[in-house]
Design a protein that fits this description.
The protein is an alpha/beta fold and about 200 residues long. It has 7 helices and 8 strands, in the order αβαβαββαβαβαβαβ. The protein has one domain: TIM Barrel (Alpha-Beta Barrel), CATH 3.20.20.
Length: about 200
């Protein structure tokens, strides 16, 4: 049995490393957890792959990890192992279905209106997902959005979109609880995505 140190995950989750492109990337999540960040496993849309990825992560870290769920997630709260300490929901409408005393629920928001809906649903924190992020986004850039969201709540707010070494420091200085990186991790050696191939010369 894996003993999960939930308190350690809360102290070291200023940086969240999320599996990219809405698909599970268990090796990335394990590497993040071992490096002291909060690894967040996107559960994707395939039940078999989500379960296999959770099974890969669980025995390889003693720190709590997070999962990201969207409306297409094939699993439910009862399917998550004890190692999960944070559930990130891609839509505030999903908050009621995932609220549980076993973990905190953090909602991605793309506007102030979405942040109000998430707060009304009883979230424990918010991710301000700026227009620089991939997937479903709004029209507001991450650093403007996070200031708008911070003005609406005293709960912790993480910022996602356009995050690099220097902009991460700026986000923290601006009052964010931390930052979320995702697509950047596709370049890591732990990523399961194929390496870029050189262009084929034309004749």
């Amino acid at each position: 049995m894996v003993v999960v140190d939930q308190s350690r995950s809360r102290e070291h989750d200023m940086i969240w490393v999320e599996s990219p492109f809405g698909e599970p990337a268990p090796r990335v999540v394990v590497a993040a957890a071992r490096a002291g960040a909060l690894g967040v496993l996107d559960l994707g849309a395939c039940s078999a792959r989500a379960r296999e990825s959770l099974a890969m992560v669980t025995p390889r870290t003693t720190s709590a990890v997070g999962v990201r769920v969207s409306g297409r997630c094939p699993l439910g709260p009862g399917d998550l192992p004890d190692i999960v300490g944070t559930v990130v929901v891609a839509d505030p409408a999903l908050v009621p279905a995932w609220r549980n005393e076993r973990w905190r629920v953090v909602a991605e928001v793309r506007s102030v209106d979405e942040s109000r809906a998430a707060l009304a649903a009883g979230v424990d924190g918010l991710v301000a997902r700026g227009a620089e992020s991939g997937g479903r986004v709004g029209t507001t850039g991450a650093y403007v959005l996070v200031q708008q969201v911070l003005a609406a709540t005293d709960l912790p707010v993480w910022v996602q979109g356009g995050i690099g070494r220097h902009t991460a420091a700026a986000a923290i200085a601006g009052g964010s609880a931390g930052v979320v990186v995702d697509a950047q991790t596709a370049l890591l050696r732990e990523s399961s995505y194929p390496a870029p191939q050189p262009p084929v010369p034309t004749l």
